[in-house]
């Protein structure tokens, strides 16, 4: 709900057109779009700059998203340094099946770890385009969201004093556990949730990938995935019980399971290396509808979470940011409010498309390990169809690359 309390002891409010809460890919992209158009804005972030530039996160960026960044002058380092991926490989039944999606669609993926993208975006926003940003803020509160003008207040980490910023609009880009979505009254929002009932052990290894592409191991003992993050770092996933303790997965067990679940005829064994990250992700999704509440516009994980099953989260955040940034610029520089009026439905069309694909892909990954012979059989039929039916292959490639949703 709107927090309309007064701010005793606070100085007179500062003013800007847009306050952006959260310095992730969505918030920084919105900020860069606004600064490029000469719109004054302020980004508030609870973590330090060093933390957000090193926080391990996703790394797969779809081609339409890269082109969107490029059009806005935000992809120079990405285009120079990112790996271009044109195929993935499924492994099931002890065999390898390479899926060359570029041959089917003419499109490809880019692999560029999120910390590198965030580093690029924050440098461009703060150091090049002169955008205002406050790191390490505490107790962020939103006020007057349904009024003629909103405000955002926060505790300054240097002085401990509550600062107040008056603004026309607030962009809520502070993720699944942020304050912006939490401040909306429950009766104003519908949150649709889905729990897959499985966990993934997420691993980051200081070791080269064993193949030149993403690997999906569909094994009766559970899914395994390999996602290259560079020549010497590899992201791995292992299906595990939800809520499992990472301590249950010592080094020897991790590598034994990766070798088994990704094993196939003629395949190289995963190269072992130190595990620099090990955490369990419980697979679940949610979608917040609508994504607009008065002068608050949610974007990225603050509005919707898609499990990393299909590597769609960062791409959805960028899609939201492109639409929101462009719509705010149109409203604040030209008086055109049509983009803001259509923001929520335009975002949600792609959100639901990606959620549906993630759910479908989950069955492909996990069906053989469900303990149900019928599900295992239908899952193997789906997998075989990808490599025997050009129509099925083309449909999968479009959804996997995000081209079916359009932009």
Automatic annotation (TrEMBL):
Signal peptide per UniProt: none
Superkingdom as given in the UniProt entry: Bacteria
InterPro entries linked: FAD-bd, FAD/NAD-bd_sf, RIFMO-like
FAD-binding domain ranges (all copies): 16-357
Record has Metal-binding as a keyword: no
A Pfam family hit: FAD_binding_3
Keywords: FAD, Flavoprotein
NCBIfam families: PRK08243.1
Protein name as catalogued: 4-hydroxybenzoate 3-monooxygenase
Organism of origin: Streptomyces griseoloalbus
